[in-house]
Sequence to fold (211 residues):
Amino acid sequence: MKNLPKIIPIFPLSNFIIFPYTTVPLNIFEPRYLEMINDSMKTNKFIGLIQPKKNNINSILDLHKIGCLGKITRFEDTSNGKYLIDLNGLSRFKIIKEIKNNKPYRECEISFEDYSDDLNLHKVDLKFSDLEIIFKDLKSLFEKKGYLINWKSLEKQNLNETINALAMASPFSLEEKQILLESKNLEIRKNKIAEILSTYNYDNFDNTTVQ
Fold:
């Protein structure tokens, strides 16, 4: 955590969450965020993705306290004034306070203290056998919702990568995904996924009817 920044540009992105050990493509087109990407590319290539809270009544969006630091791993300047980037999730963070600046985008002082395990994969001792039921129920839910997942490729990944990729790609609500993002470690996240799945199982699987 020593080499990670204490102050980062914040990208409040509605309806989207990134988890550590996942990589997502983003299409940047708002002028303030184009400038944010420009500045980031000139320095450490870090930006923080975070969800704004729902039902904001302020002109400045209230933010969730927990987001995920991402590093730009691919950058493409298109001919129509947009940037296409790939963002690799590194570690979750907690906002300490917002920093006043003269920039068009927001910056925050952050802490990684609560999520030190995000960069220490050797501490994870869960086994895939522990997750067979969760995977089974997740697979059923994905298929029911029409999501296509290459499960064989997931089995080859690190357990952190697999759980976070499934959590991010799942058809869970944004509120449920935020709960998963804020779960302090993989064991807690696994249990939270099981809790969420139990409600989906009751609603979607058990109440079958004959047409």
Summary: The beta strands are 7-12, 23-28, 46-50, 66-77, 83-99, 106-111. The chain has two domains: 7-117, 122-205. Residues 204-211 have pLDDT under 50 and may be disordered. The chain has six helices and six strands.
